[in-house]
Automatic annotation (TrEMBL):
<dbReference type="GO" id="GO:0003677">
    <property type="term" value="F:DNA binding"/>
</dbReference>
<feature type="binding site">
    <location>
        <position position="328"/>
    </location>
    <ligand>
        <name>FAD</name>
    </ligand>
</feature>
<keyword id="KW-0456">Lyase</keyword>
<feature type="region of interest" description="Disordered">
    <location>
        <begin position="580"/>
        <end position="651"/>
    </location>
</feature>
<keyword id="KW-0157">Chromophore</keyword>
<dbReference type="GO" id="GO:0009416">
    <property type="term" value="P:response to light stimulus"/>
</dbReference>
<protein>
    <submittedName>
        <fullName>Deoxyribodipyrimidine photolyase</fullName>
        <ecNumber>4.1.99.3</ecNumber>
    </submittedName>
</protein>
<dbReference type="InterPro" id="IPR002081">
    <property type="entry name" value="Cryptochrome/DNA_photolyase_1"/>
</dbReference>
<dbReference type="GO" id="GO:0071949">
    <property type="term" value="F:FAD binding"/>
</dbReference>
<dbReference type="InterPro" id="IPR014729">
    <property type="entry name" value="Rossmann-like_a/b/a_fold"/>
</dbReference>
<dbReference type="InterPro" id="IPR006050">
    <property type="entry name" value="DNA_photolyase_N"/>
</dbReference>
<dbReference type="InterPro" id="IPR018394">
    <property type="entry name" value="DNA_photolyase_1_CS_C"/>
</dbReference>
<feature type="compositionally biased region" description="Basic and acidic residues">
    <location>
        <begin position="114"/>
        <end position="123"/>
    </location>
</feature>
<feature type="region of interest" description="Disordered">
    <location>
        <begin position="103"/>
        <end position="131"/>
    </location>
</feature>
<dbReference type="Pfam" id="PF03441">
    <property type="entry name" value="FAD_binding_7"/>
</dbReference>
<feature type="binding site">
    <location>
        <begin position="429"/>
        <end position="431"/>
    </location>
    <ligand>
        <name>FAD</name>
    </ligand>
</feature>
<dbReference type="GO" id="GO:0006139">
    <property type="term" value="P:nucleobase-containing compound metabolic process"/>
</dbReference>
Amino acid sequence: MADRDLADEEATLPLEADIPSPAEAVGDPDATGHVVWLRSHLRIDDQLALTRAVADGDVICPLFVFDPSFYGDRGLACDARLRFLHEAVASLDRLYETLPTETSLHRAAGSEPPLREAVRPESPDATEPPTVETLALAESPGLTLGYGDPVSLLSRFVERGWAVVTMATPTSRYGKRRDDRARAACGSALEFVSGDGLVRDRERTRTGWADHAQSWLEAPQHTPAWDALDVTRFTIETGVTPTAVEAAFDVSPTKTEVPTGTHRVAARRLRSFIDRIESYPRRISSPQDARHGTSGLSPYLTFGLVSVRQVYQAVKTHASPSRGRELFTDRLFWNLHYNQKLADWPGWTERAVNPVFEGINEDRHDPSLVDAWKRGRTGFPMVDAAMRCLRESGWLNFRMRAMAASFFAHILQQPWWIGADWYHRHLIDSDVGINYTQWQSQASLVGTPAQRVYNPRKQVRDQDPDGEWITEWVPELAALPSQFLDRPERTPLAVQQECGVHIGDSYPRPVVDFEARRSAFWSRYDRRRAAAARALARPEVARRASFSGGYDAAKAIVRKYGSDPKHASDVQLSLSDAIEQRGTSPEPSGESTTAEAQTETERDRSEPPTDTGQRSSRHSDTDSASHAAADGPQRDEEDERDEQTRLHRFE
Ligand SMILES: Cc1cc2nc3c(=O)[nH]c(=O)nc-3n(C[C@H](O)[C@H](O)[C@H](O)COP(=O)(O)OP(=O)(O)OC[C@H]3O[C@@H](n4cnc5c(N)ncnc54)[C@H](O)[C@@H]3O)c2cc1C
């Protein structure tokens, strides 16, 4: 059937008339059938909903519904992410074709009883790079592709006698409302199964959580028993295709360097990363190195072309023990940890997790600052490169994501959710469970003892001293001698004249005074810190925060920081900040004077002065909280000198 023109299509497809009962589908009056409703987890192996459907029914119908709510002005995804999703759906459809079942059925919408067709044998090149156009569907379709309101469509299937099974995903906003509506509409015919390693079946999800996550990562994968069970796959050919959807919504990606959303590319990336995993710790921090130094698996994990567990087990099986392997598998663990937070509290996308910080910066909202940040025109080259890289390529390494988020919340002092939504729109890998929880954490909205304010000038010197990455994304600075890239506004006029880069003209001056803003942030934060710690004593707030150490971790913060503002304020300050803000040398007491903090401060002091002669400002350039508290989770977790490889229980 040709692509369906969806431009003016109000209807939800397939129509009720196109949906046979399971009995009709296979010509067996006793047949039971399951629709496998696919949202993320777009794979065949280690997919519990599919495994369950194969085990329980005589006939299964894997279904993906293109939901108009995610498109056009209503949607929150850039076209490149939509394209990635469409490629993934088409890839899954082709993958179904390779399954070793004896028969599958498909029928065109409106046609009479289903056609029985032989399924092709498993394709020998199933793991090779795609040679076909990535949105092309298999000749013998595997998925039923619907369009419209998924709840209406599922109800139609239920009315025709189908059960529906789907993998639970941590959701919020529209996704949560959709799932709630689906529950109400389908009742007991709809089952959400939890096959993603998260805990959902008890009140205190974090009790014994780390052990649970570890066991899940190491447990056998869910494998559909195609061979053992006599199950038939059924497909309705609706004429809905990714190409038709793209045409209807004018999906036309402009981003560059975006990975292709196919299972074969995911497998290739995983294999190639395993081969170079030993170099991973050295290649995480610099944005230039990270582009090819980290795994690049995040979009595949987000859409579930591969499961966290599949990646974990592949790495454990095929990579020799090394620090790289350890750091990497810890990050897979973090994926689960942050997603658990969203599963525990769907409000992460909309409200500050700690009520003490609710509404923070709303009164400071300045659209011109937001716009400068989004467009990469803040006058801070590392921030500008990050923001342009995000918009133009849809990916940033952890450090740049954290730095640009910190800059937005702490230095520009703009409402955090505007920045988080911007990331969500532009990241190809945007995972609601990670993005919004990380944003709140980076924006200091949780109330944990240690916080970090990144210094984008220091990041230039540490991560891109030659300006290779900055000038790739901010080409108007290419002619500027690299020693001025941390503070272009201090480039002597004669140098500007000579190199033809005119600060304030071809590149903006800083839109804010960094030091003044940072001090103002810490003062305000200090005033709220104890109250924020005390708020964590409230069970509902502790539950929302969802620390890996559970309620005990929240109580420990309250005990330590809830009643002594002076002590608390010491915690977030580095030595250099203390010197700068209080004009006095701090007493060597408490967490702020750990050996780590001293080492860092000395390291900073020993840096050579720049040609601009701004030696004194170096002292205040230390990333203030990177070494804040020995127990703080927000130490520089991406830094290779940091030995912390496990989640801290306060995180
Ligand atoms: C403000 C902010 C927003 C973020 N938003 C997202 C997001 O929407 N989606 C996303 O996948 N990651 C997000 N991250 C985490 C991290 O930056 C990315 O996972 C990583 O850069 C993806 O590249 P990779 O797959 O090559 O990473 P690798 O270093 O190869 O890591 C492998 C996988 O581990 C997980 N992981 C790595 N770091 C983290 C982390 N700090 N927290 C949780 N999981 C982690 C991811 O699933 C990642 O794909 C965010 C970080 C910050 C600071």
